[in-house]
Amino acid sequence: MSAPQVSTRRTGGTSRKSLPPMTKQSAIKLLNMVANGRKRPSSINDQQLVPLEPPPGSCLSSPPPGGSSSRCYQSSLRSYSKWSPTEQGATLVWRDLCVYATAGSAGSGDGGVRTGNTQRPSIKRIINNVSGAVTPGTLIALMGSSGAGKSTLMSALAYRTPPGTVVQGDILVNGQPVGPYMYRLSGFVHQDDLFVGSLTVHEHMYFMAKLRLDRRVGHRTIDQTIRDLLERTGLARCARTRIGEAGDGKMLSGGEKKRLAFATELLTKPTLLFCDEPTTGLDSFSAQALVSTLQQLARRGTAIICTIHQPSSQLFSMFDQVMLLAEGRVAYAGRPHDALAFFAQHGHACPPNYNPAEYLIGALATAPGYEQASQRAAHRLCDLYAVSEAAGQRDVLINLEVHMAESGDYRVTEEQHLTRRPHWLHTTLWLTYRALLTVVRDPTVQYKRLLQKIAIALMAGLCFAGTIEPTQLGIQATQGILFILISENTFTPMYAVLSVFPETFPLFMRETKSGLYRTSQYYVANVVAMLPGLVLEPLVFVLIAYWLAALRPTLYAFAVTAIAATLVMNVSTACGCFFSAAFNSLPLAMAYLVPFDYILMITSGVFIHLNTMPAATRWLPYISWMMYANEAMSIAQWDGVTNLTCSTVDDKLPCLRTGHEVLEHYSFDEAHLSLNLWAMVLLYCGFHVLGYLFLWRKTKR
Ligand SMILES: Nc1ncnc2c1ncn2[C@@H]1O[C@H](COP(=O)(O)OP(=O)(O)OP(=O)(O)O)[C@@H](O)[C@H]1O
Fold first, then answer.
1. Do residue 165 and residue 281 come from a single domain?
2. Which residue intervals are annotated with compositional bias (Polar residues) in the record (predicted)?
3. Predicted confidence (pLDDT) per residue in 496-553, tens digit
4. How far is the CA of 156 from the centre of ligand 1 (A)?
């Protein structure tokens, strides 16, 4: 396949069609007529102008009961003197839109085209020259068979395309090309729901409100908003239920999770709402209830775009507009009822008692065994629509928006300055709270590990009980228990955190991309949430093993051992976090970590005299916190000891008479105590900085 030449800009003006000069008022008049389904007039009379601003009490503030609010919004045109979609409603138009997926991007599943020794990236066109418009107060359904390009089109419109996707064409919101502001202006309900399962519904909503709403919004208002939203989405009775992960006993159903995702997006009262298959997995009653909630939301001025799979007849008729896609092209866009008439006109009359949506999608789908014929039929319908009157009216509306954007005297309101985002620390604290709840509520993470630590400490302590004496054998036993104290606080925690980032990565990416928080805040919150466990565990372990084994009975020696063990556990966890952030999967992280473990162990000072290591590897102990901890703990045990006895029976045993000689035997030095502790603090910071940088780099891809 030859790769098409595409520009890498998201939107641009290469395809802009030139329009004749037009006054602002004439354009508004024309737009108004087009939106109301009338043909373009040959001349525009300025006396027939409509007011620019909706009058007080118009449908923007109070929609007519049962009336077509989309018509209502279309006739209430916004002012073109400023750009303020939150005040005026958002008109989203897209023109000549093409979306390409490059090889290697999510879902492409191929690595490109190989030519000779070089690999040329392959590019697949998913959306092919699509144009359309959504006005405030309109509920529009994107429909089509599986693979038609619904999700791709919607994510491009919402400015949420996955990495590796190239978007070409114009996408404008009230005349402004879409950009990062879409994360603030619009909500996006994803097809797959991602939550922190250990939170309850109310906790999740409260957390989201704290991070997404203006920081001046008080507790009472937040509580009231959450109560209203849970009521509206039918989740009020689940407010105290944990969201849960698959396999948990107490959890929300798939449909409830979908509604929770929906309620979360409504917190910010988005002007534009994108819903990727919101009814999938819901029974017909719940699906209808959800679409009816969407209808109500549209009546209040939100422009809503949904992708939807084979809706029931009733659901189909609830949408103001439908856009039918076939192989990335538009086969029809307009009112649902008119879609049936258009298809009937071109030889696809829906039989009576047939689900219309199913019929229309079936007419555009590729039938197995008849691929070429069905593709030809779908292309024919797309071609017929492209030259239809409905497409012409749509094009006038789109061109007017583009024209107004180009020639209008817009005053772009920096709407983001109107909302005060939470402070860095505030967001970090809320993230820490959420991470802490996860740690506390997941017994496998915390309690089981603590119990395991106590059991190992008891076992190790009892095995060494009575062996710590001022003899040559006692020296060996002392160094042995110190190694147990260090290794037990190294390997288990290091491997335990390996899954932290890969497991939560999809949720983290979604939340950071939507501007909920920054990588630094997420990283710091996770580290802080781990801290209580990382202090408690080594202290409990040392407390039990130290006194059972009867190591040096001075407060100083105990304190140094406890501090060193705590630092060991924290550095190990930091190292685990670094490997976890650096690699995309647990097996990959493990594959690299195991060889690193061996370096740590070999250079700990137990297995080899560090001075005798080959010159090329002599730098390795400097990155080994096991060596630093071993030296610090050994100094605490042997510093100032002078009463060691030698064996009179076995002259093959070495004879070390003082603590100084013991330390020298292991290539340790009394003067290095504080140096060792500071080296561990440095390693802790270094690993975390590296871990953060790797995680941050992933978000930039
Ligand atoms: N990153 C990608 N790389 C290559 N092909 C892709 C990529 N993303 C989507 N596609 C392809 O583009 C086509 C449209 O995908 P899309 O997910 O938009 O379809 P859809 O209409 O939403 O389907 P469904 O209803 O099954 O979710 C599919 O054939 C899909 O395999």
1. yes
2. 1-17
3. 888 888 888 889 998 988 888 999 999 999 999 999 989 999 999 999 999 999 999 9
4. 12
Grouping H, G, I as helix, E, B as strand and the rest as coil, residue 409 is: coil
Between β-strands 118-120 and 113-115, what pairing exists: parallel, antiparallel or unpaired? antiparallel
What CA–CA distance (Å, rounded) separates 578 from 571? 10
Q: Is residue 674 part of a domain?
A: yes
CA of 639 to the centre of ligand 1 (A): 68
Query: Is the C-beta atom of 144 inside 6 A of ligand 1?
Result: yes
The ipTM value here is 0.96
**Quick check: CB of 691 below 6 Å from ligand 1?**
no
Q: How many CA atoms lie within 13 A of 293 on its CB side?
A: 20
- Domain boundary (410, 445, 461) is at 410
Q: Do 364 and 473 share a domain, yes or no?
A: no
Calculate how far, in angstroms, residue 151's C-alpha sits from the geometric centre of ligand 1.
7
Name the residue with the closest Cα to ligand 1, atom 17: 151
- The CB of 572 under 6 Å from ligand 1? The reply is no
pTM of the entire structure? 0.78
Positive or negative CA dihedral for 140, 144, 148, 151? positive
HEC-encoded secondary structure of 374-395: HHHHHHHHHHHHHCCHHHHHHH
Written as six digits, the tokens of 262 are: 């929906």
The whole-number pLDDT of residue 571 equals: 97
Question: What's the whole-number mean pLDDT along residues 336-362?
Answer: 86
Question: For a pocket test of ligand 1, which of 97, 110, 152, 701 has the largest count of ligand atoms closer than 8 A to its C-beta?
Answer: 152
* 361: helix, strand or coil: helix
Burial readout 241-254 (b: 16 or more C-beta within 10 A, e: otherwise): ebbbeeeeeebbee
- pLDDT tens digits, one per residue of 23-34: 445 444 544 444
> Which of 410, 444, 476 delimits the end of a domain?
410
Among the atoms of ligand 1, which is closest to the Cα of residue 144?
21
Q: Is the CB of 126 under 6 A from ligand 1?
A: yes
Q: Does one domain contain both 543 and 397? A: no
For ligand 1, what atom is nearest to the CA of residue 309?
Answer: 25
Which of 98-107, 233-242, 639-648 comes out lowest in average pLDDT?
98-107
CATH no. for residue 330?
A: 3.40.50.300
pLDDT at 660 over 90: yes
Number of domains in the chain: 2
For residues 391 and 443, state if they share a domain. Answer: no
434-461 average pLDDT score: 85
